[in-house]
Amino acid sequence: MARCSPCCQWLKKTWESRAPILLVVAVVMFVDCILFTIIAPIAPALLYHIEYGRGNRTFKNSSGQYPVSNYDSIFNLSHLEDSRKGPYHDQIINITESPGDKKNCYEGKDFLNEENVRVGLLLAIKAFLQLLFNPIVGKLVTRIGYDAPMFFGFVIVVVSTLLFAFANSYALLCVARGFQGIGSSFTMVPALGTLAQVFPDDVERGKAMGLAMSGVAIGVLAGPPFGSAMYEFVGKSSPFLVIAALALLDGALQCCVLKPTKFSPLSVPETPYRVLLTDPYIVVAAVGLCICNFSFGIMEPTIPIRMMETMCSPPYQLGLAFLPCMLAYFICLNLFAGFAHKIGRWLCIMIGMMALGISVLCLPLARNIFGLIAPQAGVGIGFGLFETSMFPMMAHLVDIRHTSNYGAIYAISDIALCIGYALGPSCGGAIAKAIGFTWLMVILGIINLVYAPLFILLRNPPGKEETMPVLSQEETQEQEESKPLPTKVADSHE
């Protein structure tokens, strides 16, 4: 028993430390992000099935035409006679073994071109709903703490996942995507605020957020290839049912580590939104977040459709195309989490945005899936450098220039992110249809390269005692009213 005592004490100390909270936040971000990315590569194929594949269609190849009754006939010819015995044996082998042969391609190119807009709107619905609910969640966490809203977000994410699994129409897909946006609002804002509060030291906070963002990276890394492979080889519902099981595990972890049934108002008064939104340093950071996520939001629906149009790629390749990007993103998040503080977070952010812009300019040069590897990896490196420093930078800005209440600043960060993801898919599809994929990527790359030098302003931002104006009487009164009663102040993580 004496030998077990130090071990038990160590386990107790570790469990009572901040590590379990970091684990919970990482799992929360992983579930949210894998659900977010899983739908992007399969959405074009799914809508092709729902909207174009109904009725009697034909699939053309170099040998003629096959009778096709639905989408499954186009991507999976198992409904035909046994391929070893049936009359279509040679043609089936030709299709499956030569997915890049432009003679064996998708019927309905005009439909695929029109689908840019519909896929973009489907992907953008999440961001629009998340945009509307972020300010509400930012106010809510000040009143009741971070734990309860995060658990409520888990419940909504489970509902959204099950809706995706059993949706059989475009309208139901939109409803599921909307619920996902609401769940993300109740997930990301409390998760980031929890980390900023639990890790007050700036260096530790950067490392913790880098580790937690690894959950984002793994989710983003696994989502597209996992979703597209499961969709083609197992079935439409299978990836979403797996994610629903992961979400239930996430809920169990929250119940064990956090206190979702206890309301714990924050002791630090919040800074009004209008004060934060008029801070030039926060504005520069938020606009940069918006532009970067606008770029990725445009690429999500347009690259799979570009592959379907010009490369005749089967569904599993639509997700694999994003694998180099996500892998590079994951490596950069872990590699630069601690190093970014030493070289300067502003420099990491600026280099990341420039790398993103250059890589986007190179995307139209790809003629097959292998040509996408290098530019997609460059996009991942740019995002990794950018995001490993931006979220700690946001917390640092409110620490030195305002009050250390992180609900509002991460609501603003998430709003900027959502504006990018809302405008990207919704506008990107329409712009790609109007001017073409190549010109869209050129414009996008130039925007990133032109904006990147503005992050020099974040090199050494002054504190509030140096340049911040004195609050008006009305603003001072609003801050005083936002303070919770002293008798009710309790921090669930201390």
TrEMBL record:
It is found in: Membrane. SUPFAM superfamilies: MFS general substrate transporter. The keyword Transmembrane helix applies. The chain crosses the membrane at residues 21-50, 119-138, 150-173, 211-231, 237-258, 279-298, 318-339, 346-366, 372-394, 406-424, 436-458. Pfam families: MFS_1. Keywords: Membrane, Transmembrane, Transmembrane helix, Transport. One of its GO terms (cellular component) is synaptic vesicle membrane. GO terms for molecular function: serotonin:sodium:chloride symporter activity. Residues 21-463 form the Major facilitator superfamily (MFS) profile domain. The keyword tRNA-binding does not apply. It is a multi-pass membrane protein. It comes from the Eukaryota. One of its GO terms (biological process) is aminergic neurotransmitter loading into synaptic vesicle. Residues 465-494 are annotated as: Disordered. This is Solute carrier family 18 member A1 isoform X1. It comes from Xenopus tropicalis (Western clawed frog).
